[in-house]
Amino acid sequence: INVLLRFRVVVQGIPTLLMAAGSFDDILAITGFSTCLGIAFSTGSTWMNILKGLLEVVGGVIAGLILGLFLCCFPSKDQEDLVVRRTLMLLGLSIFSVFFSHVIGFAGAGGLCTLVLAFLAALGWKTDKAPVAAMVGTSWDVFQPLLFGLIGAEITIATLSPSTVGLGLACISIGLVVRLLVTFLLVHYGGFNLKEKLFISVAWLPKATVQRTFLHRFLQITLLLYNSYTQCSVQNLSTFKGCEHGPTHE
Question: Which residue windows are transmembrane per the record (predicted)?
């Protein structure tokens, strides 16, 4: 979208199409991830985990609608530094939604709430949303390296085997090829020319932003499983050594 706006190539409603598809993709990813993660690692009922995933969607959308309507009304247009106030409130409510959803145990609802409240606020601000979008974009340029850099610092390159890296690249490549082909077929009869179809197909490739928000949960689960496995191994080794030497007598 930034490329289209930079070169003033805003035709056929492509930016709107990309934003709508990206938002739906984020909702699908958040909902699917939360539901599958709950089914895989939870000890409760499978149906309850599925119901929890649906509740996260409904709760996130409702909370986003409420906060989005709040941003449409406050701060009022007669206040000074309106753009700064709107930007700070938008970022603050988004961060609050994400952290609060983790506190109450509905982690997937925070991302959905952020998407809905930002979308609704932009609709309410209409033409006044451009300065806010520019300021949010500037803040994203600052925090994006931190977002990906911190999680990258948790990875030890020396411990990765070539076979693991190769299998990972193969899985990613297969997924990207399938996604490109499916996207191209979906927009084939949309009235676009060949260049526009190729551009939309490439633009719909995942940028790992949403995936990064989930990665810390994977990291936490992996560390918990590793610590549990290490403790069990130490206990089993101690028990084995005790049996090997036999009981001690004073």
Answer: 27-48, 54-74, 95-122, 142-160, 167-189
